[in-house]
Amino acid sequence: MRPLRGTYRLFLLAAAIALLLTLVPMPTWLAVMKPMGLALVLAYFALEAPEVAGLGHAFLLGLVADVLYGGLLGEHALRMVILVFLTLRFRHRLRFFPIWQQAGAVFALLLNDRVLDLWIRMMSGSTWPPLLFWLSPVVGMAVWPWVFLLLDGLRLRRRQAQRDRGP
Description:
Elements: H1 2-22, H2 28-31, H3 37-48, H4 55-69, H5 75-89, H6 91-94, H7 99-123, H8 136-165
């Protein structure tokens, strides 16, 4: 049970950092291209530690994101649940892809997230987003290898430290 607790702490820390990084103010034209950090963190943990990042955690973190961003309550929750569901559904295939193929799969997941975002915007009566709105999944795909390697390195270091400490 101890290794799971360490992974859970890392998950919560990574999710909190992703949520806080999303709140960093940026120019409007640049903010539209910013990848959804929470989606990348959830995708990583759904791939590598599904016992930590399930649908319930995705829903709760999505609600936290909705409250933080001041948007439609449940919008991010729905989007994160669908993203984690799709990641868990294809987890056994995606885990053994090379990192560049995983980046392509993450691009598809983030593109699906953008389509859902657009659908929710249109249903709520918002205006059509700018063309740069579609660049965010490309940026997320480009950032995925670094996010994956960073979180994987932290998990490996934590496991080695626990192993060195002994039972």
